[in-house]
Amino acid sequence: MDGKNRRIQQVFVVVTVLGLLFAAGCGSSNKMTAQTSGEKIFRAGNAYVQAKDGNASLNAKDDLAVAQGKLMNARDAFTKKNYEEAANLADQAVVDAEYARARATTKKNLDVAEGIKKETNDLRQEIERMSK
Amino acid sequence: MRHMTWIRIKSGMGVLLPFGLLLLFVAGCGPSQKEMMAKDQMDRAKKAYAEAQANPNVTAYAPMELQEAGKAVQEAEKAKEPEDILQMGYIAERKTQFAVTVADGKVAEREIDKLNVEKAEMNARKQTLEAERAKQEAGKAMSEAERARMAAAAEAANAAEAKEKAAKAKAESDQLMKELSNLKAQQTERGIVLTIGDVLFATGKADLSANANKSVATLADFLKKNPNRNVLIEGHTDSVGKDDYNLALSQKRADSVKAGLVGDGIEAGRITTTGYGEKFPVASNDTKDGKAQNRRVDVVILNEGVKAESQMRR
């Protein structure tokens, strides 16, 4: 009986260890340092400022707000020493800020085009009136 | 008994425990919610990238950005862990959106350039039209000014002519008055009227006196010098006698003057006569002198072109 119990215990231990190892293998294996995470947050901050200076606060308000939210969350995570999460959020903030800047530029161009189109139409109508 | 029960439990665990652990193991590595989210994220990223690749504007105007997005998609596809797939899939999707937005911005820039050219052409066309219109307006204003100038010149010429005519008429009138100064000449609305008076006729007579003959001769000289002037001779009487008689007598007196003028060489056609009887006295018929003044003949020197009938008294 003792031998049988021992075997059962051995199987239990082996399966448990394997399960833990496997579970550990399914989880993230990346380790992020505070320095790398901090650098990414710094880059995100720069990207955000550039977007803001590029009129995103006016022409892509919502998109800029997304970038700002991610940047703030990244800083919070960094403060809590969640460097992995901070780095991921900072990376997202960078692409969000760049997208917001591009959106602002495009919207500005579209607005300018629309304005010129209106002016041109007004001119065309004026010319038609003058030609009569 | 207790020992037996423990053995049963232990032997049961020996069978169930590995199964339980296996279930946990399978559940732990199966498609969790996070894995599903990662898959969705990756699908969105790949779909967005495929659409961007198919968009000619993106390939033309944002090739570098599209390339970066492609790399991000490839990197994301290599990721094994759901967290990594979520993260990298998000980055790839955003980079793709960035590429599309950059391309849209470039397209808008080209549109701006095109519209600016069109606007410049419109402005040039407008300026040309404005210049043409200004030219037309100037031409119109000039022709109007020219017309006004010509009208003013014509008016001035007419005024000058009228003034000249008036001056000439006055000069002629003055001259006539001067010439007729020895007759009793008066400037009236009907023209120059001169009265051959000074007791010309005796009561009931139409024969010209010697003084009257002298006056008629002066008048004849005047008419010879002014052949374009005709005369209307009006005979008058005093109140002595009946109206019919006086009317006939006044006509005779006018005719006597006419005969005198004709006798002095004046064409009869230039002379019109009429008799008014006692109708238009110039003095009181209650006195001898007044009656003598009323027995008279008035001669109207007609202006050029004026008919005698129009100047007769009513």
Quick structural overview:
Chain A has two domains: 1-30; 32-131. In chain A, 90% of the residues lie in helices and 0% in strands.
Mean pLDDT of chain B: 85
Radius of gyration of chain B: 66 Å
- How many separate domains of chain A? 2
Instruction: State the end-to-end CA separation of chain B.
Output: 175 Å
Account of the 3D structure:
The complex is a heterodimer of chains A (132) and B (314). Chain A is mainly α. Chain A folds into two domains: 30 residues; 100 residues. Chain A contains four helices and no strands. In chain A, helix 2 packs antiparallel against helix 3, helix 2 runs parallel beside helix 4 and helix 3 runs antiparallel to helix 4. The longest helix of chain A has 49 residues. The termini of chain A are far apart. Chain B is α+β, with helices and mostly antiparallel strands and 314 residues long. Chain B folds into two domains: 109 residues; 128 residues, OmpA-like domain (60s Ribosomal Protein L30, Chain: A, 2-Layer Sandwich). Chain B has a five-stranded mixed sheet with strand order 1-2-5-3-4. In chain B, a hairpin with a 2-residue loop joins strand 1 and strand 2. In chain B, helix 6 crosses helix 7. The model of chain B has no long low-confidence stretch (mean pLDDT 85). Chains A and B meet through helix 1 and helix 4 of A and helix 1 and helix 5 of B.
